[in-house]
TrEMBL record:
Gene Ontology molecular function: any one: GTP binding
Protein name: GTPase
Matches recorded under SMART domains: AAA
Organism: Tepidibacillus decaturensis
InterPro entries (UniProt xref): AAA+_ATPase, GTPase/Isobutyryl-CoA_mutase, GTPase_ArgK, P-loop_NTPase
Family: Belongs to the SIMIBI class G3E GTPase family. ArgK/MeaB subfamily.
Amino acid sequence: MENLLKQILEGNKRSVGKAISIIENDLPEKVELLNQLYPYTGHAKVIGITGPPGAGKSTLVDAIIQVIRQTGAKVGVIAVDPTSPFTGGAILGDRIRMQKHALDPNVFIRSMGSRGTLGGLAKTTREVVRVLDSMGNDYILIETVGVGQSELEIINVADTIMVVLHPGGGDTIQAFKAGLMEIADLFVINKSDLPGVEKLIHEIEMLIEMTKINANWKPPIIKTISTNQVGLEELWAALQNHQQYLIERGVLQKQRTSFLKREVVELLHHLFQQKIDVAIYTQFFNKELDQLVNKERSPEEIARIMFEKICPMKS
Ligand SMILES: Nc1nc2c(ncn2[C@@H]2O[C@H](COP(=O)(O)OP(=O)(O)OP(=O)(O)O)[C@@H](O)[C@H]2O)c(=O)[nH]1
Ligand SMILES: [Mg+2]
């Protein structure tokens, strides 16, 4: 463990891969590993990239990697495909697309599917982010398709969220329904070489007005052709702007603190759940069931009695 920790902190890709496998397979040493890594996290800027299927997210990620590398910074990428049962970098398209970076020691790419992520994809993603953070990445990009609530939970760890749309897909209504409008810090109109760009921008602007929840930050709309690296400079500038806003207004710290709080609450729920499950199988539900069936006590009363036994208020 000592050795693994040291090698991760040194940025050793093989060790990082090993750590991610430990996480994905929920091996016994996982908790200890994450505990030890935790003090070394917090440096990386985490960027979520989401949007409907086929909008060009992976191509855009690839283009952003290139920009990041030009600045000399180090980048980790997590491509999450909730619909894929595969893990360990098996999303073929993404792999081929990003392969040209695979030999770069300062780029680490990992694909994740739903298989082997026992605690849920959002929890696993959060843990993998910590590994990539502690290995010394300056940026961490998380790509996930934005089609529903559970997918959006995956990027709940991101400091900045980019929503990628493309013209001609009827995307705005879909994106609106999926809750993407509210979470976007930045809109990217990718495939802006195709017709319908101005119409899409207009629709987004209207929706921004309608759903505006933050008076201090209006999400910019950036046009890109990610296959040709067009618009990437503007996108990068917009991203820097947002990061600066986060820091100057103290939003970054607040946001991260609230993520941490939510995470602990989630973990507590999980621990309680386990405790209840164990208690039900081992201690309860003989006498109580009889009482229920005989109408001596209501379900509400039984639940409260059992709760008091499982989690006594006074010890
Ligand atoms: N014309 C055009 N095509 C693009 C552009 N960007 C990406 N594409 C193409 O769009 C297709 C989908 O791109 P991906 O990057 O795989 O899209 P994605 O959003 O990652 O797709 P999923 O991960 O499957 O949801 C590919 O064939 C890309 O070559 C662009 O700017 N213009
Ligand atoms: Mg993709």
